[in-house]
Amino acid sequence: MNAIILAGGFGTRLYPLTKCKPKALLEMGNKTILDHLVEKLELCPIVRKIVLVTNGRFAVDFMEWARKRKTTYRKPISIVENKVYEPEKRLGAVRDLYLGIHSDRDDADGFLVLLGDNYFDFPLNYFANLYCVGHRQSAFVGLYDVKDRDIASQYGVVELDENSQIVDFEEKPAIPKSTLISIGVYYLPNKFQARLTQYLELEKLNPDKIGDFIAWLSKKEPLYGIEFDGTWFDIGDRISYEKAKEGF
Question: Does this model's pTM top 0.70?
């Protein structure tokens, strides 16, 4: 499978830290957030290459990062630019996902999709090998139990049945049905490319948030939730970034 890291946002809620630097290249410990993600992908034998989707403003920053890491990481890393230079003109994460999947003519069995502003210490190899390999009809979503409904209301909230199939997915609900939230880790089999096209081109639904696409997809196809344990940080604004650095 191919890994796609979505890093096309401008990080406006982190200004001025991200005025001239992409959020994924902020430091967490002695490494960038992106390095933590790529190191996990390096340990996944079934991931053959990494595609990072970014905007026009920060493409050069990521290219420079990739150049410096050329001898550090074994897996090939390609940088795909969406040619957007201003936050007001952003394509949205769903269109960036479409761009990442169609960036070459590679026939991958599936796609491991990561948001570039998350930190977690759960072994990604476990998620990929145990759940994703061999599944060409079902998608999987990484979940985390925040154990607080007020906190859950700030994220995409998931409800599972007894077989861990997602029966409800709601973005930032006022009254969450559970404390399980989506943390920006997804596996999509190759056949779901048609659903992505349907969502964007035929039904012309909101391309901004990947959670909206996953919520829509859960009504069309079998999606299963896999709970991650350990540490997880969402780098959304300056307060959450400072808390994440402190916690790390």
Answer: yes
